[in-house]
Amino acid sequence: MLIQRYKNNPILTKNGVPYPVATVHNAAVVKHKNQYIMIFRSHKLNGRSILGKAISYDGFHFEVDREPFLEPADSGIFAEYEKFGVEDPRIVFIDGEFLITYTAYSPHGARIGLAKTKNFKTIHRFSLITQADYRNVVIFPEKFNGLYARLDRPHSDISDWSIWISYSPDLRFWGDSKRIISPEPYHWDEMKIGPGATPVKTSQGWLNIYHGVFATMSGSVYRLGVALHDLKDPSKVIAVGDEWILQPEEVYERTGYVPNVVFTCGAVPEEDGTIKIYWGAADTVMCVGIAKIDDLVAHCLNNQRPALKISS
Length: 312
Ligand code: BMA
Description:
Layout: E1 4-5, E2 25-32, E3 35-43, E4 49-56, E5 63-64, H1 76-81, E6 85-94, E7 97-106, E8 109-117, E9 124-128, E10 134-139, E11 148-154, E12 163-168, E13 175-181, E14 192-195, E15 200-202, E16 205-216, E17 219-229, E18 237-241, H2 251-254, E19 262-269, E20 274-281, E21 285-292, H3 293-302, E22 304-305
Antiparallel strand pairs: 1-21, 2-3, 3-4, 4-5, 6-7, 7-8, 8-9, 10-11, 11-12, 12-13, 14-16, 15-16, 16-17, 17-18, 18-22, 19-20, 20-21
The structure holds beta-D-mannopyranose.
């Protein structure tokens, strides 16, 4: 087993939230000083999503703030594009501030908002950084040749739903986009893939923990996999692990709001060479598991498949 599930999973459920919600899932987590800061998604009782905040000192026991952290904007351009909710946050610390990318969902589709915070007390919406229909934007914690870099997953009816890379000088304007990892036919991720956790720097490359989806007769199954990107040029994919690293197996992953889902939006590397991987289970509760970073890197390198399938 590459990932050891924490014995007391799930670590956070709606019962830990002091305001009415139906779910707690798909959370980003960062470690800052001695705190683990979690920004999680919740469905409200009308079915639309908001983001909440929770703090932990050990990465396992989280205490939730009394009020939601980010709700759909009520004025300006963001209000128009967040009407259906805010979903699936990712966090990166770069240039002395935290950037939060999240799905802004509205009748116009799903697109990505970028908000900034220095302290998780005040938050400033910066820009809507994609058009519809994009999800799963993760920004690298370092710049490359002076440019920010991000992975994302555009939705297209023509091309397969792949992982792309784009660059920006200022976080607002993005370009030089390129498709770099695609789903593999009749594999666990053949229907679509998307970036998951903010990439983690290792001695052998950037570790990208992503999700992949397989359609079955009784709905889609969401699993997690790993890829390794070149340290200097993250558009170069060194290796994609052929097999998944986590699939829905426990009851809380197989049943819930959406059955058979493990979906990550964040992982925290530790100084002892382990990594805490956080995942939403069945779009209902939050879980954590521990892996060795070296094992995940070896899984990519020893068990590879081509990064790109060229669509016909
Ligand atoms: C995706 C997103 C995720 C969710 C997953 C499974 O399209 O909406 O937030 O976890 O579906 O329902």
